[in-house]
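Internal ticket - ligand job 459, calcium ion:
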Amino acid sequence: MSIFELNTTHDPRRQSWVESANVAEVDFPLQNLPLGVYEHEGRVSWGVAIGESVLDVQALANLRLLQGDALLAAQSVKGSELNTLMGLEPGLVHALRRSLSALLGADTPLDAFEESSQKKIKRLAKVLLIERDAIQMRLPCAIGDYTDFLTSEYHTERHGRFKGLAQPLPSAFKHLPVAYHGRASSIRVSGTPVVRPNGQFKDAAGQVVFGPAPMLDFELELAGFISRGNPLSQPIALDRAHEHFFGWVLLNDWSAKSIQWWESVLGPFLGKSFMSSISPWIVTQEALAPFRMPLNARPEGDPQALPHLHSAHDRAHGGLDIELEAWLQTPTQRALGEPGLQITQTHLKHLYWSFGQMLAHHASNGCNMRSGDLLGSGTISGPTDESRACITEITQAAKVPLDVGHGETRIALQDGDAITLRAKARHAGAVSIGFGECTGVVLSAPVYPHLESSSGAGA
Ligand code: CA
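stdout (structure tokens):
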């Protein structure tokens, strides 16, 4: 079974008996079935999102309402982390998706069960359905390692110009997907507030100071979770790289640009590691099969990718037809009940490198990946003004303030501002599927310990 092959779980004609899943443009129709971990009435469980609800898959398995490979897959999960499931052989993961699709389908027979027991099973499944409003999402797995790439030429080139670099695009950019090792311990699930960090930076007068970071920004990204890893010293061929992705989530790579631009000698450090946010539902590799698309042709005159980063298969199928957007809501807008301002509208196709190339490059020196590792795409900025995917780009590095209405402007995020990321996979002939939300509100920086006892000295 090829991961890119379409099957009955993708059939656009199929609907669910969960009515809210059949509404047009809903994020979680029957064709999506993203996986997540949540807490409900004090109990931690995991399941699939369907319409406005979630189906408790752990309970399904406990009650033996799954059979065969689907049951084996569900039973592989120990505790409240999906790493073991993510690392299973793809056939088992597919069996689970197929069973859940049949179970939640309006009219599909459950092929593993006797016809007489099917009505009873669907009735029991209804009991295991919970409103998503009633649950609290958690991180879907233990994230051992997190790597963040830099794969939008537009984002990279603009930042190079803002910094006044003679050569805004680094010379390696078109030869390899640039990346740095991020901090996995501070990744949090959507809804967690982001506390403005304290840090060292150069102030407007050019003095090196320490304090609350003034230029706080968001970065709109998509991030892929690794399914099965590779042994140390054994690279991953680009043509097999897609088999090592389990699924994708939205990623907000919160960035304190004032800290980052001052500290970056070996790459980002404290300007990024204070926190990153992800959306809670993993949209699986299999769910995204109908949204595969060719990569953009490399512009005339660009260097040819070296053989280990080039494959005809990746060029033909390595892209995903995913639209992404970012919304900013100020405290004033929140007080007035306004949804805020859409400040970014972009598409994954603007990236110069595919996720397959990112992974093949990452493992090309033999670096080993593990199930649950996370690979961020980098800010998904495009060529146009509306596709700029962080405030630094939108304001041209604070030169052109962003009008947020009510007489207010922004050159960076202020305390109380909230950023919400959304994404939708759309493709001709397929039912669109969404990623849910990745949201977070900015809280003020804590008073730094050495200031609490010294009446402001040392600021
Ligand atoms: Ca980033």
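Auto-summary: Residues 148, 219, 221, 253, 376, 378-379 surround calcium ion (CB under 6 Å). The domain at 146-443 is CATH 3.90.850.10 (Fumarylacetoacetate hydrolase; domain 2).
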